[in-house]
Amino acid sequence: MFWAGLSGSTLLAAFGVAALLVVGLYILKLRRRPVAVPFARIWDSVLGDRVVDQLFSRLKRLLSLLFQLVLVTLLLLALGDPRPKASALEGRHLVVLVDISASMKAIDVKPSRLDAAKAEVHKLVRALGSADRALIVEMGSVPSPVSTMSSDLTELEPAIDQLRAVDARANLEQALSFAVDSLQGLAKPEIVLVSDGALGDLNELGRRVTLGNVALSYLRVGKSSNNVAISEFSVRRYPLDKSRAEVMLEVANTNDHPNQVELTLLGDGNVIDVTRLALGPNERLPRFYPDLAGASHTLEAKIRLADGSPDDLPADDHAYALVPERHRARILLVTRGNTYLEAALLLDEYLDVTQVAPDRPLPAEHFDVAILDGVAPVLPSSVAAALYIDPSGPASPNSLGKELKDFGFDTWDKKSGALRFLALGDVQVSRGHALVPGAGDRVLGASEQGPIFVSGVRSGRRFFALGFDPRNSDWVLRVAWPLFVLNCINDFVEDDAGYLSSFRTGSVWQIPAPTASESAILIDPSGDRHVVPVKEGRAVYRGEEAGFYKLTTNVNADTASEFAANLSDLEESRIEPAREIALGGKHSTLPDLRSRRASREIWAYLLAAAALLSVVEWLTYHRRVTV
Question: Which one of 46, 377, 451, 581 is separated from 126 by 20 to 30 angstroms, measured CA to CA?
Answer without folding.
Answer: 581
